[in-house]
Amino acid sequence: MARQLSSGGRYVTNRNRNIETIYTKHTIASMKKKLIHDVFHEYISEFYQKRSIMEIKLIYEGEVTHKITKAFTASVENKMTNEGESSLLKRKVFHIIVESLQNISKHAQSIIHTKDDFNGMGSFLIAKSKKDYYIVAGNPIHKDEKQEIIKLIDNINSLNKQDLSALHKEQMKEGKLSSKGGAGLGLIEIARKSGKALSYSFKKLSDEVEFFILTTQIPSI
Amino acid sequence: MINSIKIDEKEDTPKVIFDPSNNFFEISGRSLPEDAILFYEPILAWLNKYSYNPNILTELNIKLNYFNTASSKLILDILMILEEMVDNNKQCIIKWYFEEDDEDMEEAGEEYSDLIDVPFELIKY
Q1: Cβ contacts (< 8 Å) between B72 and chain A: which residues?
Q2: ipTM of the complex
Q3: Helices within A3-160 (DSSP H only)
Q4: Which of A1, A129, A162, A185 has its CA 20 to 30 A from that of A156?
């Protein structure tokens, strides 16, 4: 049994234990954070096994801002320089980090008007197997976007290098652009830079919101 | 003559110099602004105005080592203003610089040269 409090929090009576708990706005936000955390970690623990991950370079859960993007790219660039990675690989990783994070903040705008407050929550991971870098980006999306994203990625995955370049040119010329990018250009670029198929996964968060996880593999050169 | 544009390079935005009195036009560095439209809009507006009464030859030097997809569309918008100038019988040339081992920037240059009809030079450095 739950009813809305004027503070925006919820008041819940737990009959089984015969205690009353007040969930404030803050606790509800924490519960949602925890839900996203659980969903993301369930995915990545499977992912660690499947891809024989040996090292976690960076893991982040929270709001993705421009400052965060700048900090992550700078830190990863430094690390890769210290580890003597090639500048070609560094550029690819840099590019894919920027576009993956941009995707998170772009999608965040699509769920502003849902009643669930999953706004500004993103999950981000950079990991390495013996040979390859992996970038995993997760964010809540409105469920109405799901089919469109699947269609877009399946199409990208079906194209060869030349077709991807043609699609990229077409989208640049015809596609609409928001201040955060758009027109699927980011996903096309991620696929082109990685040279591998994009993997995706969706987990249900609520009736209206799904958690979209995009995993990019970047082979070491 | 129209005033020049000079924008200093930052970690996430390029250096931009559009200086008609010295006949020097250059975009260089990195481009991943927080809001690409906000950054490029004044540059596009300036170039649009310049295009009505340009120098005899406008040579645009692009020396970017990274740009994100949000910037890519706006860079195309800049090049399209030059294309319009060429259509109006003005002389323009785009010089696209890329570092020796930077295939990404080379390919990006090739794609832009496919998309627009302006004399286009790809220059390795």
Answers
A1: 172, 185
A2: 0.86
A3: 25-50, 66-82, 87-108, 146-158
A4: A129
